[in-house]
Amino acid sequence: MNYARITGTGSYLPGAPVSNDALIAAYGLDSSDTWIVERTGIKARHLAAAGTTSSGLALPACQRALAAAGRRPDEVDLLIVATTTPDYIFPSTAALLQAKLGIKNGCPAFDVQAVCSGFMYALSIAEKFIRSGTHKCALVVGAEVFSRILDWRDRSTCVLFGDGAGAVVLEASAEPGILATALHADGSYSNILSAPGQMSGGQPIGDPFVRMDGQAVFKMAVKVLAEVAAEAIAAAGLSNENIDWLVPHQANIRIIQSTAKKLGLPMSRCILTVADHGNTSAASIPLAFDEGVRSGRIQAGQTVLFEGVGGGFTCGAALLKF
Ligand code: ACO
Question: What is 216-255 written as a DSSP string?
């Protein structure tokens, strides 16, 4: 049996953490640390300096993941970047990252866009390439400079997000790695979370900033996360008791608490970064996973559930042996 197994993780956060009070002061927001912490669990986030791109954040995350896996860049034969904030319209962020990593072996490199579920989509695609036997060593990345698409006058969205990147090396293995994945989308809910700008004649027109119906997103997220997680667990032939760690998308502590409760998992078995990172969209799951691994909490041989949800509306889950 040809499995796809995660052999290395890495992540990168730009600059110093920006506290809620510092953000409120910097943008003159009518908000408070108490409101933000109580409603979301977010205490701080990292914001990329002007000129920093998603590929620029992805580079150190990938270098760390490759070092952890003991792989050189030219051993990578598949590079997938999940991002909502690509460097350019084209080339893809993955192609730009391939050059920055110094990969000259001509491996395929492409971006995936599923907003905050993007890493789940990218991981699932990479797993299928590897299990088919055509590829052996994938670099799967989530990278965002989400701060670029925030309206800093809109307190209901701008306090929620941050910038960062996370990466995993996924390799062919005879030992079980990813046991099951599940992905879904329902475009009829595209209006509850979007950045509805458009390109016309090479210029962005309309509104390029994140717009969100917070309560509708909250309800949808709790519902579909429970469903997609259950689907992946059932597909692997396991049950909730088999899960050692939940690594959820880090949007809101209350969404994570609801999901953990539905899975019957105590919060002590959830990797949490939302307080320190905010919501880093496609980067949030690999960032949290890297933190869980590097802190020594997630150990080799343990069973880990990833689950993500985002605009589209999209969702995805993966159950794996680390
Ligand atoms: N500071 C102070 N007050 C605020 C802020 C803020 N930052 N933002 C909104 N408010 C106000 C609103 O204007 C409203 O005021 P009003 O009663 O005078 O009209 C009041 O707070 C209540 O607003 P609600 O939207 O009802 O607040 P709610 O309890 O729903 O919390 C929140 C809002 C935190 C956005 C919540 O709905 C939520 O977390 N939703 C999920 C959204 C999410 O996580 N999105 C991330 C992207 S999607 C993803 O990753 C899946």
Answer: HHHHHHHHHHHHHHHHHHHHTT--GGG-SEEEE--S-HHH
> Peptide bond before 86: cis, by omega within 30 degrees of 0?
no
Distance CA(316)–CA(281), nearest Å, equals 13
Check pocket membership of 31 for ligand 1, CB cut-off 6 A: yes
Answer yes or no: is the C-beta of 315 below 6 A from any ligand 1 atom: no
Express as a percent the part of the chain with pLDDT over 90.
96
Fold of 179-321: Peroxisomal Thiolase; Chain A, domain 1 (3.40.47)
User: Which pTM value belongs to this model?
Assistant: 0.96
Take residue 26 and report the two structure tokens written for it: 């910097």
| pLDDT tens digits, 71-117 | 999 999 999 999 999 999 999 999 999 999 999 999 999 999 999 99
Name the residue with the closest Cα to ligand 1, atom 30.
215
Q: Which CATH number fits domain 3-175: 3.40.50.2300, 3.30.70.560, 3.40.47.10, 3.90.870.10?
A: 3.40.47.10
